[in-house]
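User: For my dataset I need records formatted as: sequence, then structure tokens, nothing else. Please produce one.
Assistant:
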Amino acid sequence: MKQDRFLIGILIGIAVLIVIALAVFFSRKDGNLNYVADDTPEGVVQNYVVALHKRDFDKAYGYLAELENKPTQEQFHQSFLNHSIDPANAGVEIGKAEIVGKSASVSLGVVYGQRDPFSSGYRNVDYAQLVRQGDTWKIKQMPYSLWAFDWYQPAPIQVK
């Protein structure tokens, strides 16, 4: 009888922990995924990241700078749809911007989670590069987890 109560107590404890874990998971899932004013470099970077996480690729594409060798909208979409770029694999902490003339650099803490129970996550400090085009800030480079390596790169020249 005493062992039955002990076992029931353990099972109830496990059930409570599962309920708490699920509540925390679902309450934090989209915690900071809100659009902000995009009149600052930090706002543009946040809105780009939010658009990617919400899979609003048209909105995200609108934040790209109009520079030579810009990817087409189709190339941009395909990079995410075929998972060559997967923003879900990393979290982003947006830091302060450093503005010099028509260029800005926004510091980013890119946090990668653990891939298995035996590894730990890690954090890289990287930068987003923006350029002022007209009255708006546009992105010309982001960290790899949010950006394809070949965007804005000249097409390779084939040697015959």
